[in-house]
Amino acid sequence: MLRKISVLTTLAVFLLFAGQNAVAEDKVLKMSTTTSTQASGLLDLLLPEFKNDTGIDVKVIAKGTGAAIRDGVDGNVDVIFVHAKSREEKFVADGYGTKRYPVMHNDFVIIGPAADPVGIKGMSDAGKALAKIAGQGAVFVSRGDDSGTHTKEQFLWKQSGVELVEKSQTIMKKGKQTEVKYLAPAGSEAWYMSIGQGMGKTITFAEEKQGYTMSDRGTYIKFKYGKTPAVELEVLTEGGDDLANPYGIIPVNPAKHPYVKNDLAMEFVTWITSEKGQKMIGDYRLEGKQLFYPDAK
Amino acid sequence: MDLLFDSVSSAFILLLSFDRELLEIVLVSLNVSFAATIIASVIGIPSGFLIAHSTFAGKRIVLTMLNTLLALPTVVIGLLVYSFVSRRAILGPLDLLYTQKAIVIGQVILIIPVITTLTIAAISRLDQRYRMTALTLGANRVQMAVVIMKEAKYGICAAVIAAFGRVIAEVGISMMLGGNVKGFTRTMTTAMALEYDKGEFVLAVALGITLMTFALVINALFHFFQGRTHSESV
User: Fold this and answer.
1) Other CB atoms closer than 10 Å to residue A2's CB: what's the count?
2) Which of B10, B21, B98 minimises the CB distance to A172?
3) Looking at the predicted structure, is the pLDDT value of residue A109 above 70?
4) Could you tell me the residue ranges of all domains in chain B?
5) Which of A111, A133, A176, B62 is the most exposed place for a label (fewest CB within 10 A)?
6) Nearest by Cα to B156 from B124, B130, B132
7) Which residues contact A80 (CB under 8 A, 6 or more apart)?
8) What mean pLDDT, rounded, does chain A reach?
9) Residue whose C-alpha is closest to residue A86's, from A77, A74, A94, A78
10) CA angle (B182 as vertex; B181, B183 as ends), nearest 5
């Protein structure tokens, strides 16, 4: 009996080590990114090429920006690739990331029914467009999920001059009371729909309710030209400076989480900001349209 | 450990401060779940009764079908109803999608099999002698049905409770057909899914604890009534 146990134990220990070795040998990089990056299809083009060049497999976990950053804070991933510049900078400033590397940008658009009852077609100032929507109480669908796009939307509402209310909920964090805050136009219960879902769902929702919403251009193109039945919503407001959407990549700080694979993360950063990576990003076409503009020098 | 402690204390803060947003969410959840449970009971209990008390060719097939429907994924029901109520579909003009009504429709479909099968089980368990005695005492069909229902009410109550538990904890249908619109169709479960997506785990677990608290209160009430009726019948 005793011998049996010791044999089994030896076997178990052996398997454990063998398992660990296998993991150590595999070059796997874990990356949290946003649903819009994943949905654009760009990663499906970049990652196989990256694997070709370096032998590194990238495991992609797509979430809202809030949750993607949270993954970085918790050390669940080795690198994050998101688009909410102010929050990325805070992530680095708080010591969770080593440095933010600019990668590329695309832009946001305000979309709505082709009939455009509010009359924002052709405008480029997103703040003014939102003010018009609010002024007429037209249905506006908000991501409301604390994502990069939602962060941008809240920023634009601030620019719009519409009166905003901040609602907050008190919760405990690390034994201390903190507030979770939400921003919404004042008196907007009837028309401002905060649905807390991803970009695709939000576009579908706006289509169903024939309302307005803000989307990144990539997801919109996918729903407009790459899907049957296509959404009928049209781009109404675009091109303003406020609508730019920069993407950054940040390796998780090994000083906070010693087990993160900083070397692999840096290899990916170097590759994606290299001439080759940047060219692939600039050459990427979705339904015949350029989506991303390279930003790395 | 931090997460658990923070979540429990956050749940207390939210509950004790009668947080307006939380109350709104809880009300939507209860509203939808009660409506679905009541409608499904009205349909499911009589169907269960009829199936249990009739003999027809293919009864076993019907039973097998019903049992299979217990495993119907919420996402499938969500998609099915969606394809009827979306703007370009047959029922599009009714503007049902992303309303509480749409959630209720989906949830009713979800729990009719639960209530029906459990009602059948409750009735089938009863001693045949109840039926026989009622018949020999000259009961007509309706009177016999009443007698059987009275005897089986403990089991039928359990069926309704199980169904209620299923809908209040359900997330797929609520998300797909309700759309998680704040103040209109945001239920406790979709709110939890959202807080998880946002990375606000503390709030998500706090909402979970709140949901369990309400479930406990409601089940305690059920149990109270059930217990009383049970002792009366003994």
Assistant:
1) 6
2) B10
3) yes
4) 2-233
5) A176
6) B124
7) A31, A32, A33, A68, A69, A71, A72, A91, A97, A249, A250, A252
8) 87
9) A94
10) 110
| The two three-digit tokens of residue A61, written as one number | 């976990």
Nearest CB among A63, A167, A209 relative to B21 is that of A167
Structural domains of chain A, ranges and CATH numbers in brackets: 2-105+246-294 (3.40.190.10), 108-245 (3.40.190.10)
pLDDT tens digits for B44-81?
Answer: 999 999 999 888 888 999 999 999 999 999 999 999 99
Of A169, A276, A209, nearest to B21 (Cα)? A169
User: What are the backbone angles phi and psi of residue A30, rounded to the nearest 5°?
Assistant: -100, 130
> Which chain A residue lies closest to B87 (C-alpha atoms)?
A208
pLDDT digits (tens, 9 = 90+) for A197-222: 888 889 999 999 999 999 999 889 98
If one counts every other C-beta atom within 10 angstroms of the C-beta of residue A199, the result is 27
Q: Which range among A18-27, A241-250, B10-19 has the greatest average pLDDT?
A: A241-250
A67 and B184 in contact by Cβ < 8 A? no
Tokens 């029906």 identify what position?
Answer: B116
Cβ contacts of A169 on chain B, cutoff 8 Å: 14, 19, 21-22, 203
DSSP notation for A73-126: HTT-SSEEEE--HHHHHHHHHTTSBS--EEEEEEEEEEEE-TT-TT--TT---H
DSSP secondary structure letter of residue A210: T
| N- to C-terminal Cα separation, chain B | 48
- CATH 3.40.1280.10 is right for the domain spanning B2-233: no
Token code pair at residue A16: 């454990």
Angstrom distances, CA of residue B212 to CA of A121, A162, B50: 48, 39, 35
Residue type, B161: I
